[in-house]
Amino acid sequence: xxxxxxxxxxxxxxxxxxALVPRARSRNVWVGLGAILALVAAGHFGFExxxxxxxxxxxxxxxxxxxxxxxxxxxREPKTLRRLIGGVVVLLFTAVAxxxxxxxxxxxxxxxxxxxxxxxxxxxxxDESRQEVxxxxxxxxxxMMVQIWYPATGKSDERVKxxxxxxxxxxxxxxxxxxxxxxxxxxxxVRQDIWVxxxxxxxxxxxxxxxxxxxxxGTRNQNTFQLAELASHGYIVVSVDHTYGAVVTPxxxxxxxxxxPAALPGSEEFDxxxxxxxxxxxxxxxxxxxxxxxxxxxxTRYDADVIDFDNIGIxxxxxxxxxxxxxxxxxxxxxxxxxxxxFLNPVANAIxxxxxxxxxxxxxxxEWMKPFNRDRYERLIDGTVGPYYELTLAGTKxxxxxxxxxxxxxxxxxxxxxxxxxAVYSMEIxxxxxxxxxxxxxxxxxxxxxxxxxxxxxxxxxxxxxx
Length: 467
Prior knowledge:
The protein has a ten-stranded mixed beta sheet, sandwiched between helices. A two-stranded antiparallel sheet has the order 6-7. The protein is about 40% helix and about 20% strand. The protein is elongated, with a radius of gyration of 26 Å. The chain is built from eleven helices and twelve strands. Helix 1 packs antiparallel against helix 2, helix 1 (about 5-20) packs parallel to helix 3 (about 55-75) and helix 6 crosses helix 11 (about 425-440). It has two domains: about 5-105, no CATH class; about 115-465, Alpha/Beta hydrolase fold, catalytic domain (Rossmann fold, 3-Layer(aba) Sandwich). The relative contact order is 0.09. The chain has about 475 residues and is α/β, with parallel strands linked by helices.
């Protein structure tokens, strides 16, 4: 909970304690508590802003203040039975009112640890050379929203918004997860030390480029903890909303394009395994082509003293991890790839059964790999002739590889696809290995973390640098 929210809790308990305890009430106490409540409310609504999880607590505070005011103004003492019943009811209701904001807090994304401040630019890019595969207009060009994360010289006038625009993104996320439409409204209150259109720090370049591909129905900023961390350590990171695969792609003209369920059908819809893979590959191939187009655009927009075009990597989560495998095996410009909980069903069979020469790091949760996906992963590894790393992180599930693991400290108990490991701690581990991998293969640094036994007891780690 945030500071004014904590003060709200303390003051609410104090108000009810005074209201129910004889001889503790007086006009001066009432006026004093009322004044303090007004100040705390002003600080909370003014600086932190209200959120729906706090509504029950607002009600408890207001009712307590009114009860105290009436007793003081009417100069009456509450009877013992009333105090007893009232105390029990207030205690139970306050526990629920406090528990809700604790169970669903405003997430605090870990601050990037690198030497550079992080800036972002969000742009609408159109690939006129390709037609949209999954949209209603077969003649429309492929368009996407691109977000560039980079080392910045300092702050700008605007912090980046976590949900942008908040209404459209929140509505799309809740629809996918089957939650009330307001469930994620509070995510727009997330404060980040990331600045929109901040000045690029050119003197520290040229920077290696990293591409990020989100999971199915994900978002371009779903891994902010990782994207900002890598940018702060001297990378230009480009993430994208894969239109019709992202949960929603909001365009500057006001369109908010939702994902198309037909783009990723389930295996039960197919009798033939080959047909299933080839159908799903349309999606992942499209995502890989998004990044090939992005690389083309970067080459036209940036000079070689800003971007090191000889050192390009890609990382992704779930379906986006499959896109990372696809791109690094089809685009010669990709030098290294990292796949988190990879969904390999859509990856082309020629790649799965081919020879992967690029350095690759595969990170796994404990429960993600289902039989078909596992079989394809083992075939992919069997054909790997380049450097290969594998990590399994105990206590994790599928959402632990994204910011969503921060959404609730009791997500594991609620049955969400996040594990029992502390979310911030798991992010520390993911960032450490991600940075070590890309520093090794894109910056040419020697990093002990990739060669030594892991300092993290939750990590099961293997490496095969030569075959």
